[in-house]
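For the sake of transparency, this paper describes our internal protein records without simplification. Such a record has a labelled line for the sequence and another for the backbone structure tokens. Nothing more is needed to write down the fold, since each code stands for a local backbone conformation. For reference, a complete record is included directly beneath this paragraph.
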Amino acid sequence: QAVSDGQFDMAAYGITITDERAEVVDFSDGYINIDQRILVGNEPEGIVDPETLDAADCSVGAQTGTTNYDKAVELVGEDSIIAFEQFPFAVQALITGDACAVIGDETAGQGYVGENADEIKLVGDPLSSDQLGFTFDKDSDLVGPFNAAIAAMKADGTMAELGNEYFSGAFTITY
């Protein structure tokens, strides 16, 4: 919203490219695909996929203003959602038992599972796979140079190398 309002020239932070958003901003080409997944506690709840999540009839955490929130609404209905301004709060609600599941991006989920493997896990197949892109105000002259940089990084293998290092099962936390 801040980009379309002219507060910023561009934004980047896991922004999913959608037709609805493209009505008010321009996007770069996608630089990574992100899968949405279900994050649950390790205690047996029986939630393993969208059907068992819906049948569980419990509170699901999701971050507002994201496609993850939209997917959660699609899966369980808005009345079953606990809305959070930031993803870490949704994960904390899962860990404390205030939510039975969280809908989020797999890469973010991997990081939280890496830190809390004794308490949470990712389950089921991806719910969707979305492209992330940089966001610009309409008709920005920055889109072309960003797209050129993304294309060059894809062509020379840099993008694949970064993706494998930081956004795959190969990623490990080193602190």
Observations:
- The chain has a mean pLDDT of 90.
- The chain has seven helices and eight strands.
- The first strand starts at residue 10 and ends at 11.
- The radius of gyration is 17 Å.
